[in-house]
Hints:
Layout: E1 15-21, E2 24-30, E3 42-47, E4 50-55, H1 69-79, H2 88-128, H3 135-151, H4 154-160, H5 167-189, E5 194-202, E6 208-218, E7 221-232, H6 238-251, E8 259-264, H7 268-271, H8 277-284, E9 289-292, H9 294-301, H10 307-324, H11 327-339, H12 357-367, H13 369-379, H14 381-388, H15 390-412, H16 420-442, H17 450-459, H18 464-484, H19 494-497, H20 510-520, H21 523-531, H22 534-539, H23 546-556, H24 563-575, H25 586-593, H26 600-605
Parallel strand pairs: 5-8, 8-9
Antiparallel strand pairs: 1-2, 3-4, 5-6, 6-7
Helix pairs in contact: 2-5, 3-4, 5-25, 6-8, 9-18, 10-15, 12-15, 13-14, 15-17, 16-18, 24-25
Amino acid sequence: MDRFLLSKDSRAPKRKAETETDGERKTVKLRKYDASYLDFGFTCIVVSGETRPQCVVCGMTLANDSLKPTKLRRHLETQHGSIVAKSREFFSRKLQDMTQQKETMKNVASTTENALKASYQMAYHIAKNKKPFTDGERVILPAMLDVATTMLGEKAAEKFKIIPISDTTVCRRISHMSEDIHGQLIARLKSSWFALQLDEATDLSKAAHLIAYVRYCYKTVILEDFLFCKPIKGRATASDLFDIINDFLGLHGLKWKNCVGICTDGAPSMCGARAGLKAKVLTAAPHILWTHCMIHWEALAVQNMDGELQDVLNSAVKIVNFIKTHPTRARLFAILCAEMGAEHDGLLLHTEVRWLSRGKVLNRIFELRNEVRQFLLDLDPCKAEQLCSPQWIVLLAYLADIFEKLNSLNQSLQGAEITSFIMNKKISAFKKKLELWRRLIEVGQFEPFPCLVDALEETEYNLQNVAELIKNHLTSLSDSFHKYFPEENNHFNDWVFQPFLADGGIHLPIRMQEELIDLQSDRTLQMQFSKLSLGEFWLKMPAEHSALRESAIKTLLPFSTSYLCEIGFSALAVLKTKYRSRMEVEQNLRLAVAKIHPQIDRLCGEKQAHPSH
């Protein structure tokens, strides 16, 4: 039994470590022990800063005071009597086996945790790209296994097999990430002013949805993001729409007083001043600024055309439909375009509800006018005769040019952080261009219309025959723009967009005028204004200009268009196909279009990692 007694030399010297408890300083004695404890079948581990013995046979961890040789000997005799006489080499092998088992368990745990995170990442990409849930198990994982086997070998590929990626798992992952994104957004909105953008539409399965986007302040930037997509039950009346919005705000602790503006399209259920959603919202929150989508106004402004121009447009659409809607004709026309060396091999169908449709259709048929004429000579000579008419070609060229310019205006009104000030400048500039183009047509200058110039050179047609028609259309278009976008007689908010104008803000309250004078005298702020975006500039405004800051932010937040809702419905159309017609789309739509990223690491920390599907 002598081997159970440790000599004084086998013990390491004592050292002291200081810790703090309840504000009092204590001295805790720690011992560092050498490998002599293997004679008893023990090794030493540190648990919470305390050295404890651990049995290498059964893995039991004893208290710190069990480091005494007599207690270690008692454990070995009472619990492992059959191996009391074993040598240190035996216990050394046991220690090595135990260490290897710990490493194995650690690696297994790490592998399953990584598989859980990979499962969330794969589900996120599936939702972001609007793909079916089954693609994970049927497409992505098999492809990963093949690539891993080819590039890394069979052993590496085995690790991918434990990733949970079945359709039900992907559905749960998407739900968790959607709730996380939604929670992050709601937390941001509770401490910020915000503006809403609303629209309603019907999907493939005839179900009506109300989509909402929100613009809000977060730290030093103004952000836009998807808020919700709720099904509309019943007849989609103004009361139904208001109840959806009001219930959502109440459920998540958001207040109407923090909403500074709402933008919608021109549907009667939305904009009705007496019984529409506008009336109900303004009853609950009279301070809200209600705006009509300026892109919808622009689409309304360009609808009316003179009879002859409208006839040319209708004829062009009929020619397109004659070729495009018949599969055989479409194939033969593509062959003809290839043989004639055309840049395109087909026409584009006209869709009335799409903002850019007219311009794209007219440009395409003008570019392929020779191919279309050749194709129609045998199939429909009456339609081919129109393409042989110089006047018809000239008017088609003019329509292609003017709608191309209208499309450019439409696209410039879309985008992040587009404020009413920017839109008004663009609309005002376009109205001035209409006047310029009308004057140029009067004096026989056609440079702003390149297609028209090409048509005149090709046909050697005298523009005077249709100049009056084109001039009247430009005049009518100008009148329509002035009707839908009247010039504002005041510029009360110019100080928000150009705060360093000397005469800006004279209508403001005295306190705000004083703050504005101080701001205009601060050269540091002038330098920041030239470097920062408008939203960042006002959000970083010092506390001494708090009144100006609040008023400026409330001016910048309201939407001027509902283009984000149109993007949302385009994503909805991709998600809810005839193969997924019963799908609840909100959570999938949120992941597809939201700009906030899910906190995958936090979600993984809340879940138990296991390799099952």
